[in-house]
Amino acid sequence: MDESSFRQLWRSFATLIREHKDELNELDAAIGDADHGSNMDRGLTKVVDALEASPEGSLRADAKLVGMTLMGTVGGASGALWGSAMLKFAAALPDAPTVSWADFVAALDAFVQALAQRGKATVGDKTMMDVFIPMVDELQTALTAGEPPFDTVRSHAREYSERTYDMVAKRGRAAYLGERSVGHVDPGSRSSALWFEALGAVGP
Amino acid sequence: MSIGLLVVSHSKHLAIGVVELAHALAGDEVALMAVGPEADSPTDGLGVNASMVVEALKGFVDVDEIGVIGDVGSSFLAASAAIELAEVEDRVRIIDAPMVEGAIACAMAVSMGASLNDVVAAGENAWEVRKLGT
């Protein structure tokens, strides 16, 4: 992946979040405080501006900028989780304008490890982990098998997000709802699926 | 070793109220600081974020060690991200306690000269104290 694709990924993600802002707010209204779409939209608008204004040459610097911007502008769990995981992702990326797909996926694994460490959630807890864990697993498996990874996995993120519909929330505010959280897609899993959709658009 | 307590809430008003109450019950000399979003914060007044906690940790200069108390889950996420970001893991602890009762218990422990370990234990023990007897 080169730097222009990396920056395109964040522009695409910002656009997708904006297009789905109302949907994300509505999902959040069911089990949270109805601001996930607005919250992510505000943060990603700032991310796009920040990347635009920053010098090119380092994926690590770009990813760090994304993390710091999200941490500073997105409130609540999403800002802390996306922000701190992006900083780990940044540390795993080269201080250079290109990265192999294998190394990119390895950095994504560091992202997921950081999410797990920070949020203490795993598959089945009705969170963004229900998308990130299986998606990164699939990317790693496909890469190991020598397949073009993004062909096989690009459409799966939405399915993983939909699976949260039947789950009982175990983490975050929705956990206070217990069984009543069943019957709603987790908004964090939905926005995470949009990130993979954006990644699919720039992947090989 | 002087110990300070950081109260992190989704509402700055709530955090300030907890600090007031803890000061009233444990004494004004206990170092307490309130952190929360304000109307003009970059999150648009919605929720606390790690940057706010980083600022507070940096501003808390007159104490050696800091215990962090918060309200609901994402305050803890913001706090743990901030502690890592500010690289102060060696002198800052997050305390798993109910915010109001825990802040009071921790502030009283601080006022009695307890170690940070004992302050943490006092906060955690606040979960066990029933309000209508056992």
UniProtKB/TrEMBL annotation, chain A:
Residues 4-201 form the DhaL domain. Its EC number is 2.7.1.121. It is an enzyme of class 2 (transferase). The keyword Transferase applies. The keyword Zinc-finger does not apply. One of its GO terms (molecular function) is phosphoenolpyruvate-glycerone phosphotransferase activity. InterPro entries: DhaK_L_YcgS (IPR012737), DhaL_dom (IPR004007), DhaL_dom_sf (IPR036117), Dihydroxyacetone_Kinase (IPR050861). Pfam families: Dak2. NCBIfam families: dha_L_ycgS (TIGR02365). This is Dihydroxyacetone kinase subunit DhaL.
